[in-house]
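Annex B. Sample input.
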Amino acid sequence: MFEHVLVPVDLTDRNRRALEAAARLAGDEGEVTLLHVIETLDLPFDELEDFYQRLHDRAQAEMDRMAEPLSVSGVSVIQRVSYGNRLREILGHAQENTTDLIVMSSRRLEAAEGPASLATLSHQVAILSQVPVLLVK
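Annex B, continued. Sample output.
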């Protein structure tokens, strides 16, 4: 079992399998952190504060919905919303918070898509992370 499992979420239903896997791997003794990163625009933050607040509120409501089944099953869940570049925020959070494992949903790659399909966020995290990464399809 893992003590600290990080699950970056994009607030879609395709995160369900990653959440289920994280819950099993954390068990009753571990904790699962849901992390949603709001990409920021290249403008002063205060100019868009209301916009970012609405995104934050929506993210929090969706993460509450995602966390409920885990909490009911006895898994300790922490929720975090971060701002910035998704890749940097995920990797930074993993390092700063003694994460044992990152669990992410990943879509199936198609040969017809070519090399560009390898640039997905989940694959970038898997390549650059200093902690183990489990990609769930």
